[in-house]
Design goal:
Elements (H helix, E strand, L loop, with lengths): L1 H9 L9 H12 L4 E5 L5 H8 L5 E5 L3 H11 L5 E4 L2 E2 L4 E8 L12 H6 L5 E10 L1 H8 L6 E5 L5 H6 L10 E7 L10 H10 L2 E8 L11 E8 L3
GO molecular function: O-methyltransferase activity
Pfam family, one: Methyltransf_21
InterPro entries: FkbM_Methyltransferase (IPR053188), FkbM_mtfrase (IPR006342), SAM-dependent_MTases_sf (IPR029063)
């Protein structure tokens, strides 16, 4: 998802809708009649900005646990009444969680970072920890009242994807679509990789619709992460 974040941040004087992925994602939301996006791991709002610039007009709930990033998120959403920022981590259950804050902000994670990640992106090394409230996808969608069959769930949580999906058990079989960051090799200690995440989503009745390249090792060119978009089977 960091590729999307960079595109949103660098889109100065360039229409982001020239990006084929943006066009395809917006067209998918239109076709599935998606009216709400749950943006899990929002950082400072890059993904929601990406969606707005690509033409999505529905509700967006952006969840970000890191205080500094959340403050920027609140400012980004201030003029948009359909964009709802929340200072929250999402996971398997409600409570409190310790978040490792990275030097580049968007690589922050609940999980310990492995050397493979730090070697590929030295600026991502952790600089501190913060405590943050944690909820679940099931509870948050219930609070906002959005119907799962009209909701896209986006997950960008740096290795914590499996845990977020464990907190979405009630709504996952009904969600219109899921966009999730997938790791091809371990980058965070204890994380589940692409195969496990894909199998879980397929078992919930979703099918892989698109893959967008993401984080690569600049020294070797090896792709380390990508985004997978999964849609309800038969949609």
């Amino acid at each position: 998802m960091r590729t999307i974040a960079k595109r949103a941040a660098l889109a100065v004087g360039v229409e982001i809708t020239r990006n084929p992925f943006a066009k395809r994602l917006t067209a998918l939301c239109d076709r599935l009649d998606v009216r709400a996006v749950l943006d899990v791991g929002a950082n400072s709002g890059q993904y929601a900005t990406f969606l707005r610039q690509a033409g999505f007009a529905g509700h967006i709930v952006s969840c970000e646990p890191v205080a500094d990033a959340h403050a920027k998120l609140v400012r980004a959403a201030a003029a948009d009444p359909a964009w709802h920022p929340e200072r929250l981590a999402l996971g398997p259950s409600a409570g409190e969680v310790e978040v490792n804050v990275s030097g580049n902000s968007y690589s922050s994670s609940v999980l310990p970072m492995l050397d493979a990640h730090r070697d590929a992106a030295p600026e991502s090394a952790y600089v501190r920890t913060e405590s943050a409230p944690m909820s679940t996808v099931d509870d948050l969608l219930g609070t906002y009242g959005y119907p799962p069959e009209r909701t896209l769930l986006k997950i960008d949580v740096q290795g914590y994807e499996w845990e977020v999906l464990q907190g979405a058990r009630a709504v996952l079989p009904a969600l219109a679509a899921v966009q999730v960051e997938l790791s091809l090799t371990p980058l965070y200690d204890g994380q589940r990789l692409m195969g496990d995440i894909s199998d879980l989503l397929v078992a919930a009745g979703l099918e892989l619709w698109a893959i967008e390249p993401g984080f690569c090792d600049p020294a070797t060119g090896r792709m380390l992460q990508c985004d997978g978009v999964f849609v309800r089977s038969g949609s």
